[in-house]
Amino acid sequence: MQNTTQDVHDILDSTRKTKIWAIGGGKGGVGKSLVTANLSICLALMGYKVVTIDLDLGGANLHTCLGMPIPERTLSDYLTKKVRDLSEVVTQTPIPNLSIISGAQDDVGIANLKQMQKAKIISKVTSLDADYVLFDLGAGTTFNTLDFFISADQGILTALPEPTSIENTYRFIKSIYHRKLNMVEDLLEVGPLIDQAMNAKISQNSTPADLISRVIEINPEIGHKLKMEIERLSPKLIINQVRTQADIDIGFSMKIICRKYFGINLDYVGFLDYDATVWQSVKRRKPLLMEFPNSALVNNFDKIVHRLLNIS
After folding, report:
1. Is the pTM of this model over 0.70?
2. Contacts for 113-118 with beta carbons within 8 Å, 24 or more apart?
3. pLDDT at 110 over 60
4. 24-39 pLDDT, tens per residue?
5. For residues 185 and 296, what is the distance between their CA atoms, to the nearest angstrom?
6. Do 272 and 240 contact (CB within 8 A), yes or no?
């Protein structure tokens, strides 16, 4: 079944207009919905057509961050076949160029999507009338969350400068690494090679990056293909609620550790200052960037979006 997601990823890799960004992280409370909402607003204000999808299928709240009531139609209407086309559950927000597909608000087992439902969402997303589609992912490391993250053109991680959040972010990265490895095993039929490498005498401190190196030693051609597939992950990192330079520097440290341990490039795209206006905007049910245009976060988000778009 893992091939289904890999095939979908290959479909999305072919030339197409719509780009997908997925925003994930460790546990809840790190600001994923806040980041998704305001990245969406930034892109919309730049003139891009944006659809943002709440894939936190157990506790959808993205509409609140965009200053909206719960839309009449949600993703569950599509998954339960009340509507036939994904575009029928798209709701326009008060912000020009920005629409939302709200997550499921009912408990009908939607939080545990079947593989085919997941593949269907991912494949249909590209038919939406949008330049960018942003996924607001649920907390944790369920296969749903990991597969949506891996399927995106850009996977963006949000973390707080706190030990538990950093630990959870590493756990998330480790989970997407192993999920990707499983997909590649099926794709390249390298399972036996990985087993052989794993069974070789390994030091106690060996890393996932060492595993790839051992596969390369056994079979250079397949080993290098495996390495290239893993390097395609290249997740982005945003540190939220920074108060000090030490908080900012955590992102650089995490980048170094990910390169050394996993052999992947964690791209630190920026930070968000701690700002009390965040909870005020949530309380008022108004989008942060629209309600507090003079907040330091406006500049933070502007820099991050430019970095994500590779605009200097």
Report:
1. yes
2. 113/57, 113/79, 113/144, 115/1, 115/4, 115/5, 116/4, 117/79, 118/5, 118/144, 118/147, 118/148
3. no
4. 987 767 788 889 999 9
5. 45
6. yes
